[in-house]
DNA sequence: TGCGCTTATATTCTCATTGAGTATAATCGG
DNA sequence: CCGATTATACTCAATGAGAATATAAGCGCA
């Protein structure tokens, strides 16, 4: 049966089995002082990445090897993000197709031995419109909204104009709509489509119309994919703990989630939820850091990882 | 900046940029008479698939081309599933690595013009333990449980034995644990690890210990990935409607979701939820099919797709 | 016609979860 | 010992989920 099927799948006209190069790209996330950071190579706004080679046993091991070689940082938790294969990806080289398999990795900065050529960058440097912890950033209504409306009104027919306005309103929470932090990727893609980010106007002499650092090739899009994935995942799986030190206070945990989500959380409800699901257990020690009453230290209960898909561990993200 | 980064990413020792072949594989799902079906090629237990070729503009278009050529079935909604690159995937051919990019597609059987070489197979033929609509299938406690316990007890040290037992109990809902339909992939991987499915014992002369048709290469694993993705996705995004005819009754809709989830739904709660979220609107007609009071016909409100990520559209799947 | 069968639709009643606000406890620096 | 600061505990209303029951509208057939 195996053989018959193989024949069927390969002996077909038009099936020139062209070869491609595979690029492995990593979005490595860690927290630094309540800022969500991504690992880049030096100051180049480039994510760690490299070609898949024969010596790599698997995609994951290839990725780990590249990240470790380029940044000196060993990886723990990783998860596949997406496989991109835009033909116009690397610009002009059309003779050889390159597909890019991206991964999300969660670690802690301390795990890095030497700073070496690596560099931690707050991801809000690349997406300043994504941080709503201190309220909606002024640029959303001052810059993005008018530019997006301008873009929408530039459409040929009225249906498209309405459609564009609606998409922008949903993605960015215009017109009394709620802000949805999970839509980070859609927002970036919308700005790209509206040619408001630098990547969409490569080759142009005009300055990028919207503030926010750009990245090499499609790396900012990959980063946006990672952010969106992480933001939605922390709501139903206890992955935040990959970013936490062995012992932490509940407030530290809350600040971490807030940093990732880019919005504030209701304190008591957050604590109630964490305790309800028995995600943590007390270490017995207390933290005496800042002024005020000392906080109990907790550690993650690794057992919960084996207790199934932690149903309904929804994090109570506060509303507007 | 683009150029500098490109140099950094490619001029590195050990970076032999080996080329690979890319295989595109589709899990095409449709409903037939309240059975969730997957599109296969003839009777070969093979998913539609083919190599990515230069003439394909993108991964998606390549996939569409292959599926249409092999089955005559045009695709509507598709979504990327996962990229596999097991070195031992295709068996023995180690000189050329093959990675497999898989997609999930949702359609309706009627869309196919001619039956041609395609064939719709109930996915429960491949995963008989996944259908809990008529209660937990006997094979779960009669076959799977003893075999998995046997496998667990075959481990060297006690810790691994406990760990295996726990994993099995979580995945299959042993020991009073609830059944979680979303874990379809974990269940298959567990059975594979325990060498209880045919794919895990290729080359052996022994018969497969667990009932359920196998598929070519790793296609059953890809199918399991698709099932798991679809089962979890119907809970927060209105993708079911891709599988529905233009007009349908609420009961038909419920039966469809039940078929996908492999478990029953509480009727009134289901209707309440659908109406609450305004996912559908009445067509004005009624269905006079079976005996009993005629049911109102509804159509999907496509507007909701543009109303953001349909927050909390959780489907009320009934408990034990 | 009307009775029973079947399916559709509406209503009600808990109980758990969620969002939000308020109160009390413990430490520190003066 | 006071007030600033942070931690932890408790309360309350609104909402949503699960489950059960009631009523409506067709059909077939005596």
TrEMBL record, chains A, B:
InterPro entries, sorted: NMN_biosyn, NUDIX_hydrolase-like_dom_sf, WH-like_DNA-bd_sf, WH_DNA-bd_sf, WHD_NrtR
Domain spans labelled NrtR DNA-binding winged helix:
240-300
Q: Which Pfam families match?
A: WHD_NrtR
Q: Which domain of life is it from?
A: Bacteria
- Output this protein's name: NrtR DNA-binding winged helix domain-containing protein
Q: Per the UniProt entry, what species is this protein from, by scientific name?
A: Mesorhizobium temperatum
What broad taxonomic lineage does this protein's source fall under?
Bacteria, Pseudomonadati, Pseudomonadota, Alphaproteobacteria, Hyphomicrobiales
């Amino acid at each position: 049966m195996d053989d018959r099927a193989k024949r069927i799948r390969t002996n077909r006209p038009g099936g020139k089995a062209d070869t491609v190069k595979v690029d492995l790209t990593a979005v490595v996330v860690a927290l630094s002082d309540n800022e969500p950071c991504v690992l880049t190579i030096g100051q180049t706004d480039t994510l760690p990445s490299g070609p898949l080679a024969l010596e790599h046993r698997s995609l994951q091991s290839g990725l780990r090897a590249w990240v470790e070689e380029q940044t000196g940082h060993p990886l723990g938790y990783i998860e596949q993000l997406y496989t991109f294969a835009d033909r116009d990806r690397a610009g002009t080289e059309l003779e050889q197709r390159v597909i890019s398999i991206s991964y999300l990795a969660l670690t802690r900065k301390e795990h890095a031995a030497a700073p070496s050529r690596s560099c931690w960058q707050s991801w809000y440097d690349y997406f300043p419109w994504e941080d709503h912890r201190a309220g909606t950033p002024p640029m959303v209504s001052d810059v993005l909204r008018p530019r997006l409306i301008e873009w929408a009104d530039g459409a040929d027919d009225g249906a498209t104009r309405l459609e564009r306005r609606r998409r922008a309103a949903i993605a960015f929470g215009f017109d009394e709509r709620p802000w949805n932090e999970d839509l980070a990727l859609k927002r970036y893609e919308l700005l790209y489509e509206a040619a408001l980010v630098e990547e969409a106007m490569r080759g142009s002499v005009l300055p990028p119309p919207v503030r926010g650092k750009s990245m090499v090739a499609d790396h900012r899009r990959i980063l946006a994919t990672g952010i969106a994935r992480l933001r939605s995942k922390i709501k139903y799986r206890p992955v935040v703990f990959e970013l936490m030190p062995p012992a932490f206070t509940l407030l530290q945990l809350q600040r971490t989630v807030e940093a990732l989500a880019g919005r504030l959380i209701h304190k008591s409800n957050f604590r109630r939820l964490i305790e309800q699901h028995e995600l943590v257990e007390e270490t017995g020690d207390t933290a005496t850091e800042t002024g005020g009453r000392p906080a109990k230290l907790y550690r993650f209960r690794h057992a919960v990882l084996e207790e199934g898909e932690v149903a309904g561990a929804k994090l109570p993200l506060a509303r507007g």
